[in-house]
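Task card 7
Instruction: Convert sequence to structure tokens.
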Amino acid sequence: MAITPTADGAEVTLLQDTVDGSVDFKGRPVSRSCSGGWRSAAFIIAVEVSERFAYYGISSNLITYLTGQLGQSTATAAENVNAWSGTATLLPLLGAFVADAYLGRYRTIIAASLIYILVSPFLYCCGEARKQCSIQDVEDAKALLRLIPIWTTCLGYAIMFAQASTFFTKQGATMDRTVFPGFEIPAASLQFFIGISIIIFIPIYDRFFVPAARALTRQPSGITMLQRIGTGLFLSAICMVVAALVEMKRLKTALEYGLVDNPNATVPMSVWWMVPQYLIFGLADVFTIVGMQEFFYDQVPNELKSMGLSFYLSVIGVGSFLSSLLVSVIDKLSGDTWFSSNLNQAHLDYFYWLLAGLNMVGLAAFAYFSRSYVYNMGMGSSSSN
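Output:
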């Protein structure tokens, strides 16, 4: 800090100790005497030296790595190095925008440094000598890739699966839920019928359906795992059709009784109208969920059996996200006409018809991929295509 003597021998600072309009990273006013200086500069220099060390370590060796370990031609490697260099030198524009508009320079530097730290171990691993994959390793990888089309075509069912705990419940909450005078069944309790459907149908499936199918198909399991999943996908489409018809009936009843503008009114239509869609939902679960469990567990390599069990759950998880995305997009495009807070003015029936169509498209794609799928008998499968 610069100082100068006065006439009486006292020393005063040439610069004010507090920097006007400046704050530190905690939002406190900046003081020249205890902020900044070489202590802060040392950290900045250390970060910059580390970053430059990593950058030039990559840029100087990249063409050798591309032509050596990756086996690229010199021309291709040069193109890739130039593309990498161009990207690296353009990205500071994005970083500067983020720093100025959102995060600030301090947080942006911290975030970028963390990315450097997290990615560096992967670069180290790329340089490690790895044993060559065996033929069995390659076949195991191919087995997983063959599952992706089946996994993808089951997402339509997963979107339908997400509706039981959302719109089905809201739909039932607007209807007459009286069981006997003085008692109303909670709307969320309607999902009880899904469990009842599963409990009743599983013994019927094992005792009657499988023996009858076995006599027709000569298959030990009656039907193959893919046929079981396909049946569930078809039932999920039927479930959406039934739900759409019930919702159309509910909206018509609300209109007839002049309840369209009354969101809190109970539509004089028994909630038992919804029981069929819940029962069909349960039947679809029996075929699809159990079918996916068996299929993915049976068809993954022996070393990945735990992953096989998680595959079917990942279908449900991704389907929930897709359902959320679909609702968000439709809500913005339709301007609250499909998903109005007043369900008597909404059009859940349109959404159900859309899901029925998506399930039928998914079923068609599933049938296409299933026809060409060859069961991997070497992984313990007892079924054939």
